[in-house]
Fold this protein.
Amino acid sequence: MAAINLFCLPFAGGSYYAYREFERYLSEGIRFLPLDLPGHGKRLKEPLLTNLHDMADDIFRQIESAFNEPYVIYGHSMGAALAYLVAQKAATKKMPEPLHLFLTGRQAPSVASKEKDAYLLPKQEFIRRLDEYGGIPKEILAEKDLLDFFEPIIRADFQAIGTYIQTENDIQPLNIPITVMIGLNDTTTYQEALKWQEVSLKKIILRQFPGGHFFIFEHTADICRIISRTIWESVRT
């Protein structure tokens, strides 16, 4: 059986390195492919993007040469929104679509962003907001030089999230199964996550885990088991 490509899309401020633990828990036959956006990770020297559609275009260009192979897309938070937009682009362009979307820590596209103006906050307020999410290591928060380095990267991503406006293509339902996972203490509510059903003709699966916005790092093994099992079940059916 051919390997299945698993493209992993970053959360705000994240890079390919953020998902490094995922690979060890994925089953054999799943090719782990974490991606970077311009200005992140291995692409630090490239100009940052501040528009979610531009980011999705960039991701699409990175993976379209592999569309002749079976693939799925995973994304957390901002990455979940990007995963959905990339799948929409594949459908619109009549190209092979992902077998499955795995989306964590993100409300459906129809739910207004809770961080609409966060990128405009003064530095200290912006840092406090980030700290509330729990995704920035304490050593970065405590080290001014590191914080100064990462702040514009994260702020650009928050701008993309906060200024995202749905287009007509964004709301066309996909014929793709979707698994949504959220933290019980995240800002995304169960009802907001349930609205992902609006964008798929297939019945979505919604799971909740103990934890906040970055519950994925406390439950990496369980999430990877769900991804692995779902992938192989979809291949067999």
About this structure: The radius of gyration is 17 Å. Residues 2 and 29 are 7 Å apart (CA to CA).
